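Section 5: illustrative case.
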């Protein structure tokens, strides 16, 4: 049996966004079904390079898959549906499967909205995809009734029984990176870390997060349960990446990498022995000076903290379970350890956020002096409490999912204190006030070590200026 796993074109990347990562989710699914069933799998990542429907048609004609699986976050679900239509037009018998956070949040509605999807996989996908492939191998054209899936039967959309999360992540094979052409990923894995200067891949050492923040979509897939891989399993994957793919930098994308001191210490020692560099995300509550010193000595070059707001009232409403004092301590400790810091902050993360509270966020940035700041306009993704609150309060104007990529489009929602245009204006103003301060630019220049660094810095800075001052909307491919 043949399976093609597809990442649809991402409009965000088409306007030159910096961040461009390997499709590890698809590589993980691929490795699992390949190991369990011996299925022939390919990964087609249309988020890199220019997408045209002819590209998909040519791949379908060449590989002739029986199943095409598409991954979709909310802003690309319509893009995924357009691809599924192309698949169906080429051959109605191909089974189209959709998975990812959007489908997981609103399964029945997604199938109702997009008839080109035959089956949807809700939440963690490995074992459900395995069952779908088995059903297709048995000759079923439209797999029905499987646990953890949504499907059509007698003209109705139905949901199968719930599927248990995997009990032990160490049972999973390593992601099938042999199906990924590393040379296509020329953006940054995370801001400041260019794939042109390092050979980077992304690594997941755990799944889930115990903190259910008001705006976050992670809960939808992992249901607030945290599962860790053992340090030994993680380090074996790292060794494979170094030996087989010559990886020298890992972007650790876990929600909860810095949880569990013993496991983390063991991973750090292993990474240190291998002499690779890495970066990760963390909550400010899960680090201290001793740990950050160990992380730095083990090759950690950057840590990104979810800060979100400088207002204690907002932090409370967002259920972040962090304080301003903890934020300031975590940034200070990382700087002392010699690790670059990045702060994620938001505009409009709660419907009641006020202009004064945004000022508090700006003032916090001046105090903690991150090396990078990512300013997002909060998007009410389905399945989040933010979405539910905004629907209840009548703040959402449209649920056309193409409009849910605020990098590309102006919001189709507003808050009690900001119109849609004002949300964007506040985001750009925040970026301008943080990044265009002479002190900030000077600190960045001091970090440059080589001509390559300088080239990377100038390139990113130009893209940043284009983003902050340029036009926003770019048309989607067909
Ligand atoms: C790494 C990451 C990225 C990477 C890309 C990763 C990728 N997979 O392509 C980058 C940095 C590029 C990225 C970009 C964005 N991201 Co992101 N990202 C993540 C993160 C941290 C981890 C995702 C991941 O790879 N996990 C590991 C894999 C193994 O798990 P998984 O992706 O959940 O996949 C499993 C299941 O979902 C399912 N599955 C997924 N796809 C498929 C397909 C098939 C066929 C099947 C059967 C199953 C299946 O099976 C997988 C294995 O069990 C999550 C947070 C989280 N913890 O989930 C956010 C998250 C997925 N991102 C999110 C968002 C919002 C974005 C952006 C829109 C942010 C922005 N404003 O720029 C962009 C989207 C770009 C775009 N235009 O679509 C939201 C999604 C919410 C939503 N409803 O869409 C999340 C949940 C973060 C959050 N806190 O809310 N992201």
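Designed sequence:
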């Amino acid at each position: 049996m043949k399976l093609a796993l597809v990442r649809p074109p991402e409009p965000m990347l088409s306007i030159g966004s910096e961040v461009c990562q390997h499709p590890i989710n698809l590589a993980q699914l691929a490795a699992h079904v390949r190991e369990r069933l011996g299925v022939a799998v390919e990964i087609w990542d249309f988020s890199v390079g220019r997408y045209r429907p002819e590209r998909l048609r040519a791949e379908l004609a060449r590989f002739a898959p029986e199943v095409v699986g598409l991954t979709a976050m909310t802003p690309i679900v319509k893009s995924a549906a357009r691809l599924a239509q192309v698949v169906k037009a080429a051959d109605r018998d191909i089974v189209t499967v959709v998975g990812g956070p959007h489908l997981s949040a609103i399964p029945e509605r997604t199938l109702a909205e997009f008839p080109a999807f035959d089956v949807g996989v809700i939440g963690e996908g490995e074992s459900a995809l395995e069952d779908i492939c088995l059903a297709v191998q048995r000759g079923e054209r439209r797999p029905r009734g499987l646990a953890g899936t949504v499907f059509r039967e007698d003209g109705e959309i139905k949901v199968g029984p719930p599927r248990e999360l995997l009990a032990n992540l160490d049972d999973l094979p390593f992601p099938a990176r042999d199906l990924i052409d590393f040379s296509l990923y020329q953006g940054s894995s995370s801001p400041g870390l260019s794939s042109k200067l390092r050979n980077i891949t992304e690594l997941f050492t755990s799944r889930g997060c115990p903190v259910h923040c008001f705006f976050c979509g992670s809960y939808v897939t992992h249901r607030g349960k945290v599962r860790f891989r053992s340090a030994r399993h993680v380090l074996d994957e790292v060794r494979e990446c170094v030996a087989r793919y010559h990886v020298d930098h890992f972007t650790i994308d876990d929600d909860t990498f810095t949880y569990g001191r013993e496991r983390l210490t063991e991973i750090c020692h292993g990474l240190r022995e291998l002499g690779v560099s890495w970066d990760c995300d963390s909550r400010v509550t899960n680090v201290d000076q001793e740990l950050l010193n160990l992380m730095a000595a083990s090759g950690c070059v950057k840590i990104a903290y979810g800060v979100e707001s400088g207002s204690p009232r907002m932090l409370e409403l967002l259920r972040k379970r962090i304080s301003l004092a903890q934020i300031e301590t975590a940034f200070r400790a990382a700087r002392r350890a010699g690790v670059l810091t990045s702060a994620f902050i938001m505009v409009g993360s709660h419907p009641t956020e006020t202009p004064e509270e945004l000022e508090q966020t700006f003032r916090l940035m001046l105090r903690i002096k991150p090396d990078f700041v990512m300013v997002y306009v909060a998007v009410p993704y389905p399945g989040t409490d933010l979405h539910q609150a905004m629907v209840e309060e009548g703040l959402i104007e449209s649920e056309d999912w193409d409009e849910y990529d605020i990098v590309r489009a102006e919001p189709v929602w507003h808050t009690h204190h900001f119109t849609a245009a004002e949300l964007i204006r506040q985001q750009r103003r925040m970026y301008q006030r943080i990044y265009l301060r002479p002190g900030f630019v000077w600190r960045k220049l001091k970090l440059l070590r080589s001509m390559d660094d300088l080239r990377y810095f100038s390139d990113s800075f130009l893209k940043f200026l284009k983003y902050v001052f340029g036009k926003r909307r770019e048309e989607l491919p067909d």
